[in-house]
Write a structure and sequence with these properties.
By secondary structure, the protein is an alpha+beta fold. It has 13 helices and 13 strands. Strands 1, 2, 3, 4, 5, 6, 9, 10 and 11 form a nine-stranded mixed sheet that branches.
Length: 396
């Protein structure tokens, strides 16, 4: 695809390839009256001191913002889901410090206010691959989360939709609960699970049709598990995905925990609490071993401002400080008045025990600093506050 004028950017289709020279020339010569790329003053493409971000038109309400990224070149950049719906993009920084007042960052921060599209280009060999139009879905201290403007334009399809952790847990639970359902697409339990999987809506980008997680697909998934089952002596399908094996290894020898987690997913998936958090990744939380739905419920509980404030006030009244229970860090001691009252809370109740309607108890919350909280959620299985404290003690 050859871009001839700035407005042609708005006519691109996802997946089209643009040469680096072509996009560079368009950006540079859109400012030069009389050049092949000139389209008028209102279509000048603005530059920034940093590379990677430009805007078409007049700031602060341009026609569009252009983002060019190498996808993974920075630790805070990249796709946040296998469906390529959400993308994390770093704020531009100087000497490691983010200045949100810079235009390069302001055009991202102001996107929800003005509504212009963000045109995402990711490096593809020696060119740029256009990913589509995005909007800012969440704003964090060091990055923004971009979400595809029209999720139906994702390249992913229902046929290629990989099973997610929640779905595999429910399938494995059925595998052990109802052995006669294995390989039996017409079994009532298989039909019921197919219905539940369609209601989960964790595959939000999909136009659901009669092929999505139907009884045939569920029956096939149950047969996949036979390949991991040492008690099965017959001929099984070839081993499936890495995630299937991970779920099998995690729960096949702990059926009680499997039943507990599956039950928790079933009773929570239609909970109104899920509507309170639209994007798991904005919280920098690695999905829990128990899946997306219970992870989201956990995030909602520990972000409940009212109960968190009560917890912090109680700890402050009792101890006179808000020290991290894992490492002892005290923001007020380190930063003075600026850090007064600042701390995060971690909800330590196991996610498999989260029940809709249950009230969060003060003893469920632990005072933690931002660093320790990130480490708790960084990898599966999540660490406890005590485990993080133990790691620190071993190191120091």
């Amino acid at each position: 695809m050859k871009l001839t004028k700035p407005a042609s950017l708005l006519k691109l289709t996802g997946g089209e390839i643009v040469s680096k020279r072509n996009l560079f020339d368009l950006i540079q010569y859109s400012k030069v009256e009389g050049s092949d790329y000139w389209e008028g003053q209102e279509y000048i493409i603005g530059n920034t001191p940093q590379q990677g971000i430009n805007w078409v038109g007049v700031y602060p309400s341009p026609y569009a913002v252009i983002i060019k990224t190498r996808g993974g070149a920075y630790k805070l950049e990249g796709w946040l889901d296998s469906d390529e719906i959400t993308f994390k993009y770093s704020f531009k920084a100087r000497n490691g410090a983010v200045n949100v007042e810079e235009k390069a960052n302001q055009v991202l921060i102001k996107q929800p206010e003005y509504g212009y599209p963000i045109l995402l280009f990711i490096e593809h060999k020696k060119a740029w691959r256009y990913e589509g139009e995005f909007v800012v879905n969440a704003i964090e201290e060091e990055f923004v989360v971009l979400r595809r403007k029209d999720i139906r334009k994702s390249i992913k399809s229902t046929k290629n939709s990989a099973w997610k952790r929640d779905e595999l847990i429910l399938a494995l639970d059925l595998y052990f609960r109802v052995p006669e359902a294995r390989g039996n697409e017409g079994h009532s339990s298989v039909l019921e699970l197919s219905k539940v999987l369609n209601e989960l809506r964790i595959n939000s980008y999909i136009n659901f049709d009669e092929t999505f997680r139907n009884a045939n697909g569920v029956g096939m998934k149950l047969r996949n598990f036979l390949a991991y089952d040492p008690e099965y002596k017959g001929k099984a399908l070839s081993r499936g995905s890495k995630l299937e094996e991970e779920i099998w290894d995690a729960y096949s020898t702990n059926i009680n925990e499997l039943n507990k987690v599956a039950d928790a997913i079933r009773i929570n998936y239609s909970s109104g609490e899920l509507s309170e958090v639209t994007n798991l990744q904005t919280d920098m939380v690695e999905e829990a071993s128990e899946g997306e739905i219970l992870t989201k419920i956990h995030v909602v509980r520990e972000r409940n401002r009212k109960i968190v404030e009560i917890k912090k006030n109680k700890v402050m009244a009792e101890t006179g400080r808000l020290a991290c229970e894992a490492c002892g860090f005290d923001f007020q001691k380190k930063y003075g008045d600026l850090g007064a009252g600042f701390a995060e809370c971690h909800h330590e109740k196991p996610v498999s025990e989260l029940i809709p309607g249950d009230k969060t108890k003060l003893e469920d919350l632990r005072i933690v600093c931002a660093n320790c909280h990130r480490m708790i959620h960084r990898k599966r299985p999540w660490k406890s506050v005590a485990e993080i404290s133990g790691i620190l003690q071993e190191l120091h």
